[in-house]
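Objective 1.3, modelling of assemblies. Example input:
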Amino acid sequence: MTGTNTAINLSVFGVFVLLTLYIVYRVSTRNVSASDYYAAGSSFTGTQNGIALSGDFLSAASFLGISGAIAVNGYDGFMYSIGWVVAWLIGLMLISERLRNTGRFTMGDVMAFRMRQRPVRAAAANATLVISLFYMIAQMAGAGGLMALLLDVHSKVGQAVIIAVVGIVMVLYVLVGGMKGTTWVQIIKAVLLLLSVSLLTIFLIGKFGFDISSMLDRATQRSPLGEAVLSPGVKYGATGLSKIDFISLALALVLGTAALPHVLMRFYTVPNAREARKSVVWATWMMAIFYSCTLVIGFGAMALVGTDEITSAPGGENSAAPLLAFKIGGTVLLGIVCAVAFATILAVVAGLTLTASASFAHDVYANVIKHGEADPRDEVRVARITAVCVGVLAIAGGIAANGQNIAFLVALAFALAASANLPTLLYSMFWKRFNTRGTLWSIYGGLTSCLLLILFSPAISGSKSSVFPDVDFAFFPLANPGIVSIPLSFLAGFLGTVLGGERADAEKQAEMEVRGLTAIGSGLR
Amino acid sequence: MTKALPSVSRPASPGFATFEEPRHSLLIDGDGEPDYSSIQTSDDFLALKRRITRFILPATLLFLAWYVTFVLLSAYAVDFMSTPLFGTVNVGLTMGFLQIVTTVIITMAYARYSKRKLDPQVEKVRALAETDEELA
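Predicted structure (tokens):
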């Protein structure tokens, strides 16, 4: 790829950054209260928030990672798409409305509602920070890989500089705009992303005469695997163990989505439960369209570009969508697609930074350190300082993880969310007896078991593709720990509760249940 | 929360029965705070819970079972999933796409059910705890 190409990419991307920064600056209010900073004053409509929700969720992993995974592994890559769509039903029916009615700013608000505040909030903040960092590092690593392709930056130093630039821009979004600015960035980016994948898809379908079958046929001819790419098992079907890994991944995807802290926090930007529900309905539609499109784009890339060319390109698997764009629209379309992908990374990372900083400031600083009596202005100041620290950590982590497969890294973040958060949220909403000890056991049980299993998995050591390929301490055979750590966390929460600890506070439980379903006492309409 | 006037939270005296009648069931304690325990056991709230469960429980079980079936078939019934349905499109790809379709259908069904059956019932329960100012 040539110099003019790079210039186009850079200028499209530059325009996006300048435009969004301007919007972020315009919408941000001067005198920011905690509610403005964390939840945009709960002023967004369900529709706006639904679009932003899909913006938060459709990360670079979804766009580049999934279309790449489909283009290379065919059917097994498609699995990610389905898990991520189906998962929204959990968010819709079990989580979103109750969360909106019960909490104010963070996941910790809900988990700690009827428990002892300090330990539970600290635990919720720990889980939020770990999950957000994991997710963020995946996104930053993606930025590095993308740049390798886009700007022809092959040196690790050059990519590191780019990762740092992404980090700085996203911290700027968060500092200047708070939740309101970040939400607008998500909305703009989601619309751009959905438009470009829809247009690509329509073009592809048209190119093959509106005949999906002939596109797939062509795809099988361009893949070294032949017909097998259309069947399950290319990536995960080799052994009995790899099949269990596949099931584990599928579980983590479907149970993790609605428990991601940055997705949960989005439900606070709308004024009431009805709008929260509407958000998820909108988000589900966006996801359904988006992931149907990735299927076409993935197989389309396989058909038009060919698997071999994709895997040997600088960005590897992740470069399928950009290469496809180049093939059908030349440098201009490549520039646009890359800029959209880049915007995606930027926006998602900004959302994560905001979530992590809110969790630290609201749960740890205001409630654990200051016993719930912090000055709101101090709280926001702490949140901003945290945002900067989180940004620095993410830049460092992203540079370190540069070159890893991003869809896979993100899948680990989902396993963490499904293990640490989902059991705790469900228990505290639906199980009367659940108490403080159960809460702590399920959060920490899920979090530590998941982290340990990742540490001792082939993802970290012992195989060609792991982080440390030269050493081998991988005694846990699965790359994705979900199938073990999710049930373990449910079990830990159950045992922690029934084996003792203080009895659940019946009055608080009544308050939480009534408030969760009806918003009585929350001040919401 | 505003403080309710004491007269609201106490049973109306017989002389004012007609005046107070529409608000006879206000579930607010002496401080004007909602009395959550009484609301939790009130008929209206229990009815709301039943209506929620009636939809959410079967729907959740259904979609999880359908998803797990799909995953298990993909892992252990490769031949079945590879059976061509039309042209090169096989059972597995079709089933996967249907997962997305059913998700949208359940989402729309829940949105419709909430609007018709849940939201009005929520309003009923909320009326139990409405304070003077909100009624005014």
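Chain A has 21 helices and no strands.
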